[in-house]
Amino acid sequence: MTVTALSITPIKGTRICGVDAIELGESGALGDRRFFLIDARNRMLNAKVLGNLQAVIASLSGEELMLSFPDGREVSGSVPGGGEAVTARFFSRERAGHLVDGPWNAALSEFAGQELRLVEAGSAVDRGRDGAVSLVSRGSLERLAQEAGAGSVDARRFRMLIEIDGVAPHAEDQWVGREVEVGDALLRFEGHVGRCLVTTRDPESGEVTLPTLDLLRSYRGETDTTEPLAFGIYGRVLRGGTVRLGDSVRVR
Predict the structure, then answer these.
(1) What CATH number does residue 7 fall under?
(2) Do the beta carbons of residue 35 and residue 124 sit within 8 Å?
(3) Model-level pTM?
């Protein structure tokens, strides 16, 4: 079993992009989902509500944050520290962070057609440290493509951190509760990732183009998983370290 893809984004909801290596710590991959977006009512917004966020590419080099928009426009600047504290509604929970002042807020608000503000939270993965990492197998993606009658399904629809190959479709379902070595890191998987409408959206345009939830319901609706309509797994980082493309994956 080997690592075949690693995908991150510094701003939750924007397009995920492949990288050659990640550095894992307790909160997940360094720099991944370091920021998230809130509206005027301090509610977190992602691509479930604003699908066109996936057309925006965010990149972070040191403290220099750049946004690239589909029309070719780019907005960049250095991330300031010490922003105003804010508590945001993050799904059904609250998440504390700091507002980030800079050119990104105006650019994102104009693009989305509503007020958006950037919040720095260190890590904005959905399930906190219990879900610091996520993983799916290429076999599972191929199985879904068969159900869809398609040659392939773009893995970026599922916004997973790690993709692996070398196992049967959905073999990773059985890793919940087990420890898995991936590269230099040791992970323990805590649950199955239940899916939402984000996965129906094209990972570049944000347009709804594939009925992923109907497909999952048709062949996995009765599968015994920790969350409904599951596809992939999430877990904790027990031992941090570097994970690279081609690294081996070992289930303990």
Answers:
(1) 2.40.33.20
(2) yes
(3) 0.94
